[in-house]
Amino acid sequence: MKFSNLCSVSPLDGRYKKITQKLSKIFSEYGFIKYKLMIEIFWLKYLSNIKEIKELKKFDNNTNIILNKIINNFNLKHAYKIKKIEKITNHDVKSIVFFLKKKLSNINNSKKIIEFIHFGCTSEDINNIAYALMLKDARRYHILKHWKKIIKKMDYISLKYKNIVLLSRTHGQPATPSTMGKEIANFSYRLKRQYNQFKKIKILGKFNGTVGNYNAHVFSYPNLDWININKNFVKSLNINWNPYTTQIEPHDYISEFFSCIFRFNTILINFNRDIWGYISLNYFKYKFKNNEIGSSTMPHKINPIDFENSEGNLGISNALIQHISFKLPISRWQRDLSDSTVLRNLGSILSYSIISYHFINIGIKKIKINKNVLKKDLNNNLEILLEPIQIFMRKIGIYNSYEKVKLLFRGKKINKKKINNFINTLNISDIKKKELYNLTPFNYIGKSIFLSENIKLYKY
Q1: CATH number of the structural domain 124-215+240-370
Q2: CATH number assigned to the domain covering 382-440
Q3: How many CB atoms lie within 10 A of CB 281?
Q4: β-bridge pairing 204-205 and 173-179
Q5: Is 295 a catalytic residue?
Q6: Does 142 qualify as catalytic in the annotation?
Q7: What is the pTM (predicted TM-score) of this model?
Q8: Which among 4, 171, 296, 300 is annotated as catalytic?
Q9: What angle do CA 253, 153, 349 make, to 5 degrees?
């Protein structure tokens, strides 16, 4: 049977391929091979510029052009050649070394150049830098862009709905009014904090040999300052240098990196559930297309499936993040291989997150506020006005105000007439009574509008 997306075991490469395919350039086997090949070439070129290594002369322009072409012209055919070599070697990095040796076998002074491929390196020097660059590119070109899009939409609807008063619910019960704009602004602010933290997380790399001590480097060229040489090489790739490692970079930064994504995702799970609840209460109408079907048997159904899909995929992503955040920083002695297979799933983790971001953006576009239902709900729960009434009573010195209001009204259905009758019994001036008469759920909203409007001041 000819392969099709329908044959994929994972929905990442099947049902959701159109959403995740951009990440495949980074996190696929092909992408991983290319990053490793790039690093081998970058290191070879870097060594050629160290004048004290007399056995490797500075590359001429022609050699540099050839090396650059190997990177720029790298394609699937080349990747398959490397995989073919790997079937024999059973070693992914060494297969790239053999591939590169063959590619350079016909250039001038090739024998000497070839011997400096992978010079002083352990495989993890190549792998950890590859993952660092992959995560750097994923953050810059994908994750932050998706996050920014979500936050921008939240800021927009926060301003759009700044005047739309809604009945708050604490413990699921009617509570002090807010505005829909302010409730969305709460999420926007939380997400902006994670966005700003995520940008600042330092991506680390190490390039110090088999157990992190530059043993082979020093033995070969004892007079060279290998610590600074390797430090500058790592920094030349626009990542941060980790000076203390075993054979592996300890992955603490990867745990930090994904823990921030975990927090961003958790906030979005909260958002999805709240919006789902507001749709259930009919506070939001959910736009639909005539040809879409909500249920195979109930023709009336319009389901908030985008928020549900988003929540589900966020959950999968976060479950995997929990594992890697605990597992990756732990390695037996100078190294074990259990991190290797886990690291190969970083793309899957990010893919599940990006699927969820895709659906949340679609969902936000589909919701439309239902003012009539919000208004009705507020007018049917006038007991929420008892809070400002008892606070006002306390302010003007009426003793035991809270207890009096509680004794009279708690557990009873309240309407405007009952509230006004109670106000009439208070021994206060007509001016003060008028203040209380004029109190409604729609003007008892504190600084909600101000807070909605000012969410745009918090930069990201």
Answers
A1: 1.20.200.10
A2: 1.10.40.30
A3: 15
A4: unpaired
A5: yes
A6: no
A7: 0.94
A8: 171
A9: 30
